TrEMBL record:
Keywords: Glycoprotein, Membrane, Transmembrane, Transmembrane helix. Signal peptide: none annotated. The keyword Iron does not apply. It is a multi-pass membrane protein. It comes from Euphydryas editha. The chain crosses the membrane at residues 21-40, 68-88, 97-115, 121-143, 155-174, 180-201, 269-296, 308-328, 335-358, 370-393. The keyword Membrane applies. This is Major facilitator superfamily (MFS) profile domain-containing protein. Residues 27-415 form the Major facilitator superfamily (MFS) profile domain. It comes from the Eukaryota. GO terms for cellular component: membrane. It is found in: Membrane. GO terms for molecular function: transmembrane transporter activity.
Length: 415
């Protein structure tokens, strides 16, 4: 009897250990490099603005505050305008080619700056970066979701947030201490390597099934999981995808209006829009942008150098992203998101109380507002932002995912 139990345990352990997830990690990291470049682009303005406004500016003359503001904002404007386009191209031509285009545009944005740094060319470069950014939070996340197995999806999707936070941190670090052109050369190399690497990546199996390439989809699923293509797990995964594809193929062509007429899909869309609305109202972006102003408004006496202040927030963002990546599969999405919002609300309330106390009664220890602000930023990068996007990728099935994600991501950039 004991021998039978032992054999059963050995078989169970063998079943658990079958296959591997190496390629899921490799290609998720590779696709996530587009977010690394996006993070570098997001952080570029902060350490570079003083160089562009100096007498020896790379632009040939010191740029005005208004010109810097246009250069900073045009990326988000361009991203907002093209997100809807990615919903069509990602379904029509596949996820892989779109990620390659995103990496190419990311490289082009920096190559332009190698040859010309006039105001117009900097605007053009940032627009190219914005067009690339428009696909980061939908095409890249869809691709990672579709090549990942269920128990890996959460942690792999949070890699994009980690990469973006690392990109901001690295840019703050190297942007302040390296030569203007040296920074550009480094980032161009990253973009080109990402583009070349994605050429070797497999297409999303759900796209392959949509195109009728069942055998190729079977090989892709097997390759990603380190299993034989005749393995029962691979067969089950592909059969499930085929059933979903057949079900929606029998339906008329779906557009946004027809999708929203479906009660279940409409309810899911409303819920995710409410979630993103609260994400936009989190306040972390305002803290990162106006940290020194907010700290000054507390009236507390402390000394923080601009360099230390600018580096501390990306560090906290990276730590928060790493934390959520390590526990998202263990504790689930809902508890982490609720916990992040509760902590954020308490910290925001604490900052308000500190400001009131300072005005009415007197000073407070200078470290308290700093800690509260760090916690808000950590909760944003370690819960509010990544978990919300993971939920977005999982909430809708393949046939409507691109269309609804494009609407939600457009709303995200607009906010």
């Amino acid at each position: 009897m004991l021998l039978i139990k032992k054999n059963k345990k050995e078989k169970s352990a063998t079943a658990v250990k079958r296959g591997h997830t190496y390629y899921q990690w490799i290609f998720s990291l590779l696709a996530g490099c587009t977010h690394l470049v996006y993070g570098l682009e997001c952080g570029w303005i902060s350490p570079t603005a003083t160089k562009l406004q100096a007498d020896n500016s790379p632009s040939g003359y010191p740029l005005s505050d208004e010109e810097i503001a246009w250069i900073a904002s045009c990326m988000s404007i361009a991203a907002t305008c093209v997100v809807i386009l990615y919903s069509y191209t990602s379904d029509r031509y596949g996820r892989k080619i779109n990620i390659i285009i995103i990496a190419f545009l990311g490289a082009l944005a920096w190559v332009i700056r190698i040859f010309d740094n006039s105001f117009i060319c900097l605007i053009l470069a940032r627009v190219c970066a914005g067009i690339a950014a428009g696909g980061c939070y939908n095409v890249v996340l869809m691709y990672i979701k579709e090549i990942s197995q269920d128990d890996m999806r959460g942690i792999l999707c949070t890699l994009t947030t980690i990469f973006q936070s690392v990109g901001i941190f690295v840019m703050y670090l190297i942007g302040a201490y390296l030569d203007y052109y040296s920074v550009i050369y480094v980032i161009v190399c990253i973009s080109i390597m990402t583009m070349l690497g994605m050429m070797l990546a497999p297409e999303s199996p759900e796209i392959l099934i949509k195109e009728g390439k069942i055998d190729k989809a079977m090989k892709t699923v097997a390759f990603m999981r380190g299993l034989d293509e005749h393995d029962q797990t691979v067969q089950t995964v592909v059969e499930t995808m085929m059933k979903e594809a057949a079900e929606f193929k029998s339906m008329p062509d779906l557009n946004i209006l027809s999708i929203l007429k479906n009660k279940i899909w409409r309810r899911g869309f409303v819920l995710i829009m409410i979630t993103f609305t609260f994400s936009e109202m989190n306040g972390a972006f305002a803290i990162i942008t106006f940290a020194s102003t907010i700290l000054t408004s507390t009236g507390s006496e402390f000394v923080i150098s601009p360099e230390l202040l600018s580096l501390s927030f990306p560090v906290v963002m990276v730590l928060g992203s790493l934390t959520v990546a390590s526990c998202i599969e263990r504790y689930g999405r809902k508890p982490l998101l609720i916990g992040a919002y509760v902590v954020s609300c308490c910290c925001m309330f604490g900052i308000v109380i500190i400001i009131i106390i300072q005005k009415e009664a007197g000073g407070v220890p200078g470290w308290i507002p700093v800690v509260l602000m760090m916690l808000i930023v950590a909760m944003f990068s370690g819960g509010v932002c990544p978990v919300t996007f993971v939920i977005l990728t999982e909430m809708f099935n393949f046939q409507i995912r691109a269309k609804l994600m494009s609407l939600v991501v457009t709303y995200f950039y607009y906010g």
